[in-house]
């Protein structure tokens, strides 16, 4: 009999490279259907840190949950520029850093689009076909679908003041749907790793 802790000696139905929202969500779903799933992740389990995407050595970047190497951008003038992208490398991928705003696309986003300068064809699938998948993903990532009024009650004083100011200026702001399990100690870990697992990232929602 093979040692269950020795991944290389076992037969796996599925091997998924990367534990970001994409890989982790699919892997969890396949595992729940009874398939054995091996996740291969380049990064480690990263705890909270205050550095943001500022580290420059490969080791320190991985230690803080960021992709270790710079990417190259081709600029409009033809020059190539190296930069560190905001891409995660950790158990949970980029989602350990993300702002957890999880919105649906609008039904009209699936339609053909015609502008004076260009046309894009409609999607080959409709918004309606996505709805059951949206529903199960929203459940998994803690989206509550509550009214704007209730969502606003949970907002920080700062956000409420911002909403009020926008309304006074004639705008119609609406709170985003976020995958955060708000409680009294919640500090809304937007752009950073949540120390209390109340942000639904791929690690919290799917892997662990
Ligand atoms: C600061 C920040 C805020 C964001 N806020 C939001 C938001 O509010 N709402 C929203 O919808 N999106 C947001 N995003 C974007 C969102 O987080 C990403 O689009 C999403 O998490 C990408 O998921 P993914 O699975 O496609 O890839 P990733 O999360 O990039 O995961 C890929 C994983 O694969 C691993 N990997 C890659 N290659 C290999 C290899 N060869 N071997 C082993 N492992 C490998 C990587 O280490 C990584 O962990 C934000 C992103 C950042 C950085």
Short description, anyone?
The protein has 208 residues and is α+β, with helices and mostly antiparallel strands.
Present the secondary structure layout.
Blueprint: E1 14-17, H1 21-32, E2 37-40, H2 58-63, E3 71-74, E4 80-83, E5 113-114, E6 119-120, H3 127-140, H4 148-153, H5 157-168, H6 202-207
Parallel strand pairs: 1-2
Antiparallel strand pairs: 3-4, 5-6
The structure holds flavin-adenine dinucleotide.
Can you tell me about this structure?
By secondary structure, the protein is of the alpha+beta class. It has a domain at 1-100 and 186-208. Helices cover 27% and strands 10% of the residues. It is built from 6 helices and 6 strands. The protein has helices at residues 21-32, 58-63, 127-140, 148-153, 157-168, 202-207; strands at residues 14-17, 37-40, 71-74, 80-83, 113-114, 119-120. A two-stranded parallel ribbon has the order 1-2. Strands 3-4 form a two-stranded antiparallel sheet. Helix 1 (21-32) links the parallel strand 1 and strand 2 (37-40). The radius of gyration is 21 Å and the shape is globular. The site of flavin-adenine dinucleotide (FAD) has 26 residues, from helix 1.
Q: Estimate the global geometry from the Cα principal axes.
A: globular
C-alpha end-to-end distance: 26 Å
The largest sheet has its strands arranged as 1-2
Q: Into which percent range does the helicity of residues fall?
A: 25-40%
Mean pLDDT: 93
Number of strands: 6
Q: Beta-strand percentage?
A: 5-15%
Major beta-sheet overview: 2 strands, parallel
The helix tally amounts to 6
Regions with little confidence, pLDDT below 50 for 5+ residues? none
Q: In sequence order, what are the helices and strands, one letter per element? A: EHEHEEEEHHHH
Structural class designation: alpha+beta
User: What does the radius of gyration come to?
Assistant: 21 Å
Bound molecules: flavin-adenine dinucleotide
